[in-house]
Design goal:
Elements: E1 2-6, H1 14-21, E2 25-28, E3 42-46, E4 51-55, H2 79-91, H3 97-107, H4 115-130, E5 135-138, H5 148-159, E6 163-166, H6 176-181, E7 185-188, H7 209-216, H8 220-225, H9 231-235
Parallel strand pairs: 1-2, 1-6, 2-5, 6-7
Antiparallel strand pairs: 3-4
Length: 236
C-alpha cells in the first residue's frame, strides 16, 4: 500500500494533489502543531498582473500549545466575503468559472469554526473534481506516537504501508535506515510544475489549485500530472 500524508492546507497548490494521486491512502495530518505564516491558513491566487494572498484569520492566542485541529477561525472579520469577492473578480472571465464558482459561494456562506474542518471540506471537493480516488484518513483518529520521522514510521507500520511518499523537504528529517529496516520503500516527491493557459499571457506558477480548475476545467488532472511520476512508476 502506498501512503502519503500532509498537514491541512488552505486552497492547496498542485503539488499536493499530485502526491495524493500517486498514493493509495492519504492521511490528513490534523494533529500537528499549527504553523503561523505557513500554508495552513493562506494561499495565492492570480490577478490580472500579479498574485495576491487569501488568508483565513485565526485566533492565535495559545496556538503554540494547540494542534491544527484545535485552531479556531477568527470570524469577527468578514474574511469570507473578501475571499469570495477576490475569487469572483479575478476568475469571472475564465472558461470554467460558472462550473466551479457555485461551490465557493456555498462554502463562504457557511460559518466555519475551525480551520481544519474548512480545509478538509474543500480538499475533499477538490479531489472529487480532479477525479482522484484515495482512502482518506485523519491522523487525529489514528493514535500515532513519535515525532517527525518516527511519527511517519509509526503511521506506516500501523497502516501496513509498503511505500511512503515524502514531500521533497522530507529529506531534511527522514531517517531512511529505519524505513529500510521496516521494509518500507521511501520516495521523495519532486514536483515539476506545469505551465497552462491562464487568464492572461503572463504565466505565474505555484498558485492555488483553483487557478488551474477555473482555467482548465476537466483537463486539470492531466495537466497537473504532466511530466511527473505516476502511480505505476511508484509501484515499480
Amino acid at each position: 500500500m502506498i501512503l502519503t500524508a500532509h498537514q491541512p492546507v488552505y486552497l492547496p497548490w498542485l503539488g499536493l494533489f499530485h502526491k495524493i494521486a500517486i498514493s493509495d491512502t492519504y492521511v490528513y495530518f490534523d494533529n500537528v502543531q499549527y504553523l503561523p505564516k505557513d500554508w495552513m491558513n493562506r494561499n495565492k491566487i492570480k490577478t490580472n498582473n500579479d498574485e495576491i494572498w487569501l488568508t483565513v484569520p485565526v485566533l492565535r492566542k495559545g496556538y503554540r500549545d494547540l494542534r491544527t485541529s484545535e485552531i479556531k477561525i477568527n470570524n469577527s472579520t468578514d474574511w469570507q466575503k473578501k475571499h469570495l469577492r477576490s475569487i469572483s473578480l479575478n476568475y469571472k472571465k475564465t472558461e470554467y468559472f460558472d462550473d466551479y464558482f457555485p461551490f465557493f459561494e456555498e462554502v463562504y456562506t457557511k460559518t466555519w469554526n475551525t480551520l481544519s474542518n474548512l480545509n478538509e471540506y474543500m480538499l475533499r471537493w477538490f479531489l472529487k473534481q480532479l477525479g482522484i480516488k484515495v482512502d482518506f484518513l485523519k491522523a487525529s483518529e489514528l493514535d500515532l506516537v513519535g515525532k517527525k520521522s518516527d511519527l511517519v514510521l509509526d503511521m506506516c507500520n500501523k497502516l501496513k504501508a509498503t511505500t511512503y511518499i515524502f514531500g521533497e523537504l522530507g529529506k531534511e528529517y527522514a531517517e531512511i535506515t529505519k524505513f529500510q529496516n521496516a521494509n518500507i520503500k521511501t520516495i521523495f516527491q519532486k514536483y515539476n510544475h506545469p505551465e497552462y493557459l491562464q487568464n492572461n499571457n503572463q504565466f505565474i506558477s505555484n498558485l492555488s489549485i483553483i487557478d488551474l480548475l477555473f482555467n482548465c476545467g476537466p483537463r486539470s488532472f492531466k495537466i497537473l500530472m504532466k511530466n511527473n511520476m505516476t502511480k505505476e512508476e511508484v509501484k515499480k
